[in-house]
């Protein structure tokens, strides 16, 4: 074990999918940590000092030493502490999990930014929504291979791909409200729809993944005003 959990501090923003995934991972490991909510319009000196390159959340401070970038943080947590493993032990399965986790951010994450922060017209938003649905449809197929009959991408337990994709779920609800149509449609993506319910119900995700759509949409207006989600 690389140090005591009492030495952990996480700098974040409650709606950030990148922060949410780190909080879920810390909960899965059963680690106690101090959570510090950042004001993106007035970033703290601690955040700017801890992540001088990107000046973005999340940043995990372990015994005062900063670790930045969410997927890096997730793998650090998995390696530094015993407990529920985010990555499988078999090398090929580890590589596959890393591939699909990267795919989520490359495809789903990029479409998420387009849907909420980069669209200048309804046509652009519709195109971003279509890209998100296409990426999610691919993940519907990937779930069959990754889960191996289990309830999560990680098999019997929540793994790396689960926490990476699960971080976006609060925003998916907001997109559903805006567009009037579900991103994870139970009719066309039954595996992902069932996975979403299981993920949200997991103790590690409860109270972390936002479920108040009105509150998320209100926060969206704040983010648009300052032009940032970092």
Q: Kindly provide the name of the CATH class of the largest domain.
A: Mainly Alpha
Rg, Cα atoms, Å: 17 Å
Q: What is the global morphology? A: globular
CATH architecture descriptor name of the largest domain: Up-down Bundle
Could you describe the largest sheet, including whether it forms a barrel?
4 strands, mixed
Q: Count up the domains.
A: 2
Description of the structure:
By secondary structure, the chain is α+β, with helices and mostly antiparallel strands. Helices cover 56% and strands 7% of the residues. Strands 2-1-3-4 form a 4-stranded mixed beta sheet, with helices on one face. The longest helix has 28 residues, at 91-118. β1 (8-12), α1 (17-29) and β2 form a beta-alpha-beta unit. The protein has 2 domains: 5-80, Glutaredoxin; 91-226, Glutathione S-transferase Yfyf (Class Pi), Chain A, domain 2, CATH 1.20.1050.10.
Summarize the structure.
With 230 residues, the protein is of the alpha+beta class.
Question: How do the helices and strands line up, and which of them pair or pack?
Answer:
Elements: E1 8-12, H1 17-29, E2 34-37, H2 45-50, E3 59-62, E4 65-68, H3 70-80, H4 91-118, H5 122-147, H6 160-166, H7 169-179, H8 190-201, H9 213-226
Parallel strand pairs: 1-2
Antiparallel strand pairs: 1-3, 3-4
Helix pairs in contact: 1-3, 1-6, 4-5, 4-6, 7-9
Observed structural traits:
230 residues; alpha+beta; Glutaredoxin; Glutathione S-transferase Yfyf (Class Pi), Chain A, domain 2; 2 domains; four-stranded mixed beta sheet; 9 helices; 4 strands
């Amino acid at each position: 074990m690389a140090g005591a959990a009492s030495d952990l501090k996480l700098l974040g923003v409650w709606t950030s999918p990148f922060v949410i995934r780190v909080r879920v991972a810390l909960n899965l490991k059963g680690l106690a940590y101090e959570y510090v909510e950042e004001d993106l319009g007035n970033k703290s000196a601690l955040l700017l000092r801890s992540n001088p390159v990107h000046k973005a959340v999340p940043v995990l401070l372990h015994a005062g030493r900063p670790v930045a970038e969410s997927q890096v943080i997730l793998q650090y947590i998995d390696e530094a502490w015993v407990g529920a493993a985010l990555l499988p032990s078999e090398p090929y399965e580890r590589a596959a999990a890393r591939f699909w986790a990267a795919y989520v951010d490359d495809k789903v994450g990029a479409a998420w930014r387009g849907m909420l922060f980069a669209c200048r017209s309804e046509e652009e938003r519709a195109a971003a929504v279509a890209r998100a649905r296409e990426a999610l449809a691919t993940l519907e197929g990937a779930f069959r291979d990754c889960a191996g009959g289990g309830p999560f991408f990680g098999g019997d337990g929540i793994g790396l791909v689960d926490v990476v994709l699960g971080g976006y779920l609060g925003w998916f609800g907001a997109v559903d409200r805006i567009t009037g149509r579900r991103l994870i449609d139970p009719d066309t993506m039954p595996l992902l729809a069932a996975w979403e319910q299981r993920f949200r119900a997991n103790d590690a995700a409860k109270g972390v993944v936002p479920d108040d759509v009105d509150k998320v949409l209100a926060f969206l207006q704040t983010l648009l005003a300052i032009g940032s989600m970092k």
